[in-house]
Every structure is written in C-alpha cells, then in structure tokens.
C-alpha cells in the first residue's frame, strides 16, 4: 500500500488573471494540504505576473514561471518537469475543483490496495458565471470505445503518477490540434487501464479552445491518434478514415433529426 501522496497541481495560463484567481482559490481551500501549486504563465500582460508574485509571497506551496512557450502542451510538460509530486493534475486557468475534499478523496484512492498509475473522475460543466448546468461521467471505461472517440478523459479530473507521465514521454507537443492529452491516454491505456471514480472532481467552464472544434476536426484528430498508436480500425489507416467520416456523418444526421423531431413536437396539431 502506498503512503499518502504529495500532489502537484499544474496550472497553465495566458492573460486570464481572473480565471487564475478562481483556480488558485479552488486549490487553496482544499482540506488536504500535502500539495504544491505550480503556475506556468505564457508571459501575460494583464496583471497575472504581479498576482503570481504576490501569491508566491503569501503561500509557501505556490510557485510560478512566466516565459514564452510553444503552446499549451509545451507549458503542461514544462510544469510536469518542474513538479515534485507523486501525482500530477493539470487544472488550467479558469478550471476548479468541485469541492474542498477533492484532493483528500484522490489521496485516499492512491493508497488503495490495487495500485493504479492514472485515474479520473467526473466533471461538471459550468456556464460563464460558473454555475453548473450539466455533468459528464465517463464510466465505465471502455478501451475500444475510448479509442474510437466515443469516450474522452477529462484532464481536469485526471490524476497521473508523475514518474509514469514523464516515463511515457508526457504530452506529444507535435500532435495536431488541442487533443494531445487524449493522445497520451490512448497511448497508455493499452497497457495501463485507468482507475475510474464516480465522483465529481473538477468544474470546467465552457468556451475553451476544444469547445470550438467542429465534429469533423475532432474525428480527424481521433483518427490520427489511432493511426499513431497502432489501433486503427482493421489496422488500416484508410479504412479507419472512411469509418471516421461515416461515424461523424451519422452522428450529425442523428442530431439533426432529433432537433427536427423536438421542434415538430412544439407545433399544435
């Protein structure tokens, strides 16, 4: 049985000082105190650096760097290399933990007899005023459904062993789009399945970069993940691509038909 973990919270940010304040306060109110909070800032010009400097003076477990980077996954990898914890969680600016007992819950799971290298819980979706309006529970984990893009792992609610993350190469910064986190999970789930917890661990405010991707772009990214990691449908990139297009078209058609039926139901006979 493993001892209580030291947890590294890694937050990347760029010109989002108000969102960063929310994320820091979410960490600061945790009942579990054996953690550090690392902020990786991409040279913000909105007061973020000044806020981080003041927070570093105030909190002994808070640190930050502010420098240029090659993108969000370069910043995440940079934070992971700086970290000292047994566990990593990437809680980006404007994300938050659902309640003050989140880290305590994860720490208890780390000490479970069945050891895991990575695990995830559920997330709540919030509007721009941070009011929850929906929840997402990706359980149970189904490896093939995940590889096909029918499930996804919420990195805000995912805790990864630091040595495991670095040993597996971290996030592939060359991977296109905003899905390098999902590519990492596709890569590692073939040999190390995740622990899955039916508990809300993080709040995610809608409106990020991934929210703006079209279904066609997302399906193309999942296709590239499968090909890169040798899990393409029929072990053939061309068959996999045709299948990706067909699935996207079917989902779009099903969604459109659903909207049509719902709107028709509103008309009187």
Task: Write a brief structural summary.
The chain is α/β, with parallel strands linked by helices and 269 residues long. It has one domain (7-210): Spore Coat Polysaccharide Biosynthesis Protein SpsA, Chain A (Alpha-Beta Complex). It has helices at 17-28, 48-58, 72-82, 102-110, 143-147, 162-167, 180-188, 215-228, 237-265; strands at 7-13, 35-41, 62-66, 87-90, 96-97, 118-126, 132-136, 158-161, 195-205.
Walk me through what this model shows:
The chain has 269 residues and is of the alpha/beta class. The protein has one domain: Alpha-Beta Complex (Spore Coat Polysaccharide Biosynthesis Protein SpsA, Chain A). The protein is 39% helix and 20% strand. It contains 9 helices and 9 strands. Strands 1, 2, 3, 4, 5, 6, 7, 8 and 9 form a 9-stranded mixed beta sheet that branches. Helix 8 (215-228) runs antiparallel to helix 9. The termini are far apart. The mean pLDDT is 90.
